[in-house]
UniProtKB/TrEMBL annotation:
SUPFAM superfamilies xref list: NAD(P)-binding Rossmann-fold domains
Superkingdom of origin organism: Bacteria
Family per similarity comment: Belongs to the short-chain dehydrogenases/reductases (SDR) family.
Source species: Adhaeribacter swui
Pfam family for this entry, one: adh_short_C2
InterPro entries assigned to the protein according to its UniProt record, in alphabetical order: NAD(P)-bd_dom_sf (IPR036291), SDR (IPR050259), SDR_fam (IPR002347)
Protein's UniProt name: SDR family oxidoreductase
Amino acid sequence: MNISLKGQVALVTGGTKGIGKAIASKLSNVGAQVVVTARHEPKDQTSEHHFITADLVQPEAAEIIAKEILEKYGRIDIIVNNAGANLSPGGGFSSLSDEHWHNDWQINFLSVVRINKALLPSMITQKHGVIINISTGAAKQPIWELTMSYSSAKAALNVYSKALANEVGSKEIRVNVVSPGVVKTPLMMEFIEDIAKSSNTSVDEAFKTVMNKVGVPLGRMAEPEEIANLVAFLVSSEAKYITGTNYSVDGGALPIV
């Protein structure tokens, strides 16, 4: 399989750390001009990526990003909506305030809706485009004491993605979802450390708790590059008949086929 994205412009939101960084690097390695966004530019950001500072929680951010991309490159071929986070405390429904719910839905759902709305008209005009929305296995297998509002927002993202795929498929635009399980990223490690602090246990014990809750037959976290490899395939011409599908990359954690 020879994947080439030469001449294509790709946006990766949240593209400076973890899964997003791995995706940006992979797409760049196979020829794409990659634009990445994050709230803060990292000191080690490579010059091969065009960086846009953006807080996607702010409604105006999507239009600012779209304007800069289209003015600089004149097109957008690939959107990877990777930015997202579990921002709320554990403990179930009684621990979650309106602000917790609002924040999780802003970053994990509404930010994606806004980015797609701002850039889809360009894709429709050029009659070509691929959108990958990064979700989570927790949207299908929520852990009530850890991910209630986050899982709910991502579940909405899954349904939205299927609806969008149905709408824009006739316009030669494909929309798919990639749902990672437990991935070894800075955010995941912070999440585990927070669990350790709140439960007054060690980081190793907190890690075991998470892995036991999720139940991963392969017995380990995924590396970010393992998610990036699938994304690179899905945005390429090798996957040109694939749309409206949700791919689990979770080491076998999802207990259904």
